[in-house]
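Let us begin with a simple case.
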Amino acid sequence: MLLNVLLILLPLVIGYLVPLSSARLIKLVNQSLGKMVYLILFLMGLGLAYVENLGTNLAVIFKVAAVMLGAITACNLLALWWLDRRSPPTHETRDGKMPSKLHLLWESLQLCFVVLAGVGLGLLVDLRILPIDKLSEWALMLLLLLIGIQMRNSGMRLRQILLNPWGMKIAATVILSGWLGSLLAAQLLTMPWNHALALASSFGWYSLSGILVADKLGPVLGSAAFINDLGRELIAILIIPVLMRRHPSAAIGYGGATALDFTLPVIQKSGGIQVVPVAIVSGFILSLLGPILILGFLAI
């Protein structure tokens, strides 16, 4: 798992080592980043269309997933809102007039429509012959490479990327508030506390939670963990543009571990390049601790 996280960061480091002196090339990189957002989300939707073994015990699966998602979402957002109030970040916001909330919601809905378009195409046409997982991985690597190039040529120093107190605070807040939400959900579901904490400790990494939880607790809870984390990612896509202006910690932190990969382009698009190091630090910490915490709680 640690090797996978390091491999994700490799193209970002390589991109950071590429200096560009041409304004035209820098503009091309910036334009390509916006297009990569839609490509990655479409591939994610296409992959979701072929998820198996979610048809059995649907009532139990969706009940567990809905209660866990609701409790964790409430606790995460409240705690991250408190973090912004207690120590407001000093990042620069984008220049110019801020779009209306309706415009921001429409941007979020467009991103969701891209995911749904991928799901719809996958249900209508069997494209499993395509290496969808590999295509998603390559698209993500290219995205991180472009972000690294953008970071290097925006004047951002390496220290800002590797040592970011704001990102560390966000990660700690997400962990503690997520655990609190899962314990509240455990009371409502009469679920063992350690099982609830395990489900909360993937922090949105749905491919990880589905595999690890299913292996230890069976396919029903494994599917619930998957849907819980998938729902978190989709909600993050929807709310990031809306929250970024006034509640950036909530916008960055709610995506959890996905701030390192799938929600990173949405964060970058909504908040600008200056919030990318924050998202990477937070996402990296949560991705690193996720498998350790899940396996630790399931072993109790």
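The second case is a distinct protein. As before, the sequence precedes its structure tokens.
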Amino acid sequence: MSGLEVLRYVALGDSQTEGLGDGDEAAGLRGWADRLAEQLATHHSGTHYANLAVRGRTAGQVREGQLAPALELRPGLATVVAGMNDLLRPRFDADEVAGHLEAMYAALTARGARVATLTFPDLARITPLARPLGPRVGALNDRIRLAARRHGVTVVETSHHRVVTDPRLWSPDRLHAGPLGHERIAAAVAHALELPGSDDSWTRPLPGPSAAVPAGWRAAAGELRWAASFLGPWLARRMLGRSSGDGRSAKRPELLPVRLRGTSP
């Protein structure tokens, strides 16, 4: 894809696409989709961008709440990234989740949009407590690839590269990418879309040694601190039927011109 062909970019998804882990509520969230929009804008000053993603949404909720508004915006490019919130729930059905994703792929491509999506990394390489989720991740990734192939959707294969589980790419909650992680995701999508100036450098290891992985009781203590700080509150919300996205709406629901960082409003 030439960057000159992309004028209207719409992002659908959950917290990763909203940008959690890259910025904060006070200064504003950036995230990989914002970063990708900025890359598009460097090659076409007329690029307009909308981000419909809302944290906490399952794939079905993304389809229900974001697909129709996205279609109304008539995107030339759309990204659809959802399913992580489904993976974390006790009752997970890979076919059901993939069905929601495929319905979005089908609807968007039928309207002429080019669509890109991501596969998910092995969560056990990010936090050992997530090891039981490994088969779920593999099953969902397989179905994403099949559905994408049926509709000509570009798949960004983040799951194949070891760097994606480098702790330096992740925020402390281990559920969201940090700023460097969002930067790498944006670079991965740009490369998959063959944007001018993109390459496979996003797949390369980070310079310098990664933080040493603790062993023994230190590792156990670290996992317990993580569970108390992040996993516990998440489970409590699930038990109460609440979501981190309750009462929230899309941060950028309309197609607006992309202002490059460092430029005047």
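Confidence is low (pLDDT under 50) at residues 1-6, 212-219. The CA atoms of residues 225 and 264 lie 43 Å apart.
Keep these points in mind for the review questions at the end of the chapter.
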